[in-house]
Amino acid sequence: MSENQLPFPLAEEPDDISRETGRKLFAGEVDFLKGVVAMSGLPPDDRIEVCFAGRSNVGKSSLINAITGRKALARASNTPGRTQEINYFTLGDERYLVDLPGYGYANAPVKVVEKWQALLKQYLSGRASLRRAFVLVDSRHGIKPVDEEIMTLLDKSAVTFQVVLTKADKIKPSQYEGLLKQVRGKLAKHPAAYPELVLTSSDKGDGIATLRSIIAGIA
């Protein structure tokens, strides 16, 4: 069975038109709008919205910086759990790109962690304009129980999510098959999972054009 016939195949490289559409979208205006600490602070849900979720230290800030082509748009940090707000970015005139707080282990007081985890759940279950959540999974570790908790929440909220494997350059090519088998096995239990995986490396640029074209194509 070929790779693209398997359940949850890897997303194919975009064709020239899709690649250019994605490039143009992210070559335009991408600006930080606001950091939100409560649902009341969310901007109007008057445009298409995609969000990025992932365990602390999964490489979320680095990936957002890579797809937007801005080195410091999302503040990368080696301190897990530094992002404690829902950070909104405008992507042109018709889209929001949303950076969610890291979940799982966080180097912060328990009450702070609980507060932003509650905000994360409220957002995922109550944002009508959210078209897709990109759930980032570290290629070195595969899907962990804490990832599955968020995936289950997305299932319950009927929010389509797509797994993006980060740091693909940190594992050997011989490890890909085992990684993909583990991820596919876990995703089979989640009805809200989009049936395509994206393999990325922020450092090498792998998968960046693919991810840009996917976001540009979400209507």
From TrEMBL:
Entry annotated with the keyword Cell division: yes
UniProt keyword list: Cell cycle, Cell division, GTP-binding, Magnesium, Metal-binding, Nucleotide-binding, Septation
One CC-aspect GO term: cytosol
Annotated function: Necessary for normal cell division and for the maintenance of normal septation.
One BP annotation, GO: division septum assembly
Native organism: Marivita geojedonensis
Cofactor names: Mg(2+)
Family membership noted in the UniProt record: Belongs to the TRAFAC class TrmE-Era-EngA-EngB-Septin-like GTPase superfamily. EngB GTPase family.
UniProt xrefs under HAMAP family: GTPase_EngB
Protein's name in the database: Probable GTP-binding protein EngB
Domain EngB-type G as annotated: residue spans: 46-219
Entry keyword annotation includes Mitochondrion: no
